[in-house]
Amino acid sequence: MIVDNILMRNVRNHVLTEIDFNSNVNVIYGKNGAGKTSILESISIGSLSKSFISCSDSNIISKGAEFYEVNIKSTNELDMKYYSKVKYELNLGKTISNSYGDNITPKELIGTIPLIILTPDYRIITSGSPQSRRDFVDRVLSQSNKVYLDEFLKFKKALKQRNSILLNNKLNNSYNSKNYYDEDLLDEWTKQFVNHSSELIFRRMNFVKEIQPYFSDFYSRVANNNESVTLEYIPNIILKNRELKDINSEEIFYEQSLDAIKDILEQTYDRLKYDEIKRGSTLFGPQKDEFLIKLNNNIAREFASQGQHKTLLISLKFAEFQYLKNKRNDTPVFLLDDIFSEIDSYRIGMVIELLRKNSSQIFITTTNPNQVREVFSTDNIKFIHIVDGVICYE
């Protein structure tokens, strides 16, 4: 996929900005606060319906404005034109349209422009909590597979309903009282929770198997050494059943049968049901899964050096790139936000070289364009200078 053009209205300090992009490399440079990252944010909004920076839509709107709007024109691998438009208005909310329809949902937009984002904030993927790695896996699978995204949204709804039922019961302090505890309602939402959870677990398990070779290969290239890296999936239900000393269920699980996973989830529910009622929350399921990144069989979060964490993150992002490219049959667009502040020139050079070999369109933000010029030749590169939310033509 190639992003040909973007039109931004009232996106942070961009009151009205339109840019035609190079199909190869686009370097967006300027001082801190000039509005460089806002351009990448807008590409994210037009591709994924939201910014890659955690914030509310209202905070993206320019000061004094009532809305923001992002329009993207792009071209896919088959040379077919595609457009998307995302508009957010205060008090009215968000509306989305693209080449396939008007008033579509975010679910229908996600994945139409496959997107890879590398920003210093994503270092938490390798060094942070399990939630950061679950978020990474969910983002990749949601872009690659509409079924996964649909199951994930249904899972979140079922989890929310279960937690609401359990919490209300705890607040009423009546888990033994039929006046408040609706067992049939809990069982019904548990059934949906189990069905959607089993799909997520099954697909996450296969995802790890498929992405692992890419992860190992890219790490060996970027690190230029013989260190081994692995991404391991440890479902919460396996941990729960280990606690319950049910070894058989773990053996069944690793046969990768969807029905077997459902059976284990149902058995886990039966065993934890009254503990959940007492505690007022869901105690098992994929919302508690762990993905372990290991370096030479050691947990990277605990043993990796700062430099190794950077290499792990780059390698994981390239594995994501290759995985999405194969699944979508379309080359993802790669956004590199302020990576010169975190990653040395050698690793950046490797990043650019690998991306160019894969014919990916690249977007880079930097405060110093000379850093980019030092890394690779300036052939077929567009430099875009931003000053206070305005393109400065030189």
**Secondary structure tally: strands:** 14
Estimate the global geometry from the Cα principal axes.
globular
Spans of at least 5 consecutive residues with low confidence: none
Task: Identify the CATH architecture of the largest domain.
Answer: 3-Layer(aba) Sandwich
What is the total number of structural domains?
2
CATH superfamily of the largest domain: P-loop containing nucleotide triphosphate hydrolases
How far apart are the first and last residues' alpha carbons, in Å?
29 Å
Remind me, CATH topology of the largest domain? Rossmann fold
Q: Structural class of the helices, strands and pairings?
A: alpha/beta
* Order of the strands making up the biggest sheet: 7-11-12-3-13-14
Estimated share of beta-strand residues: 15-25%
**Helix/strand order, N-terminal first:** EEEHEEEHEHHHHEHHHEEHHEHEHEE
CATH C-level category of the largest domain: Alpha Beta
Number of helices: 13
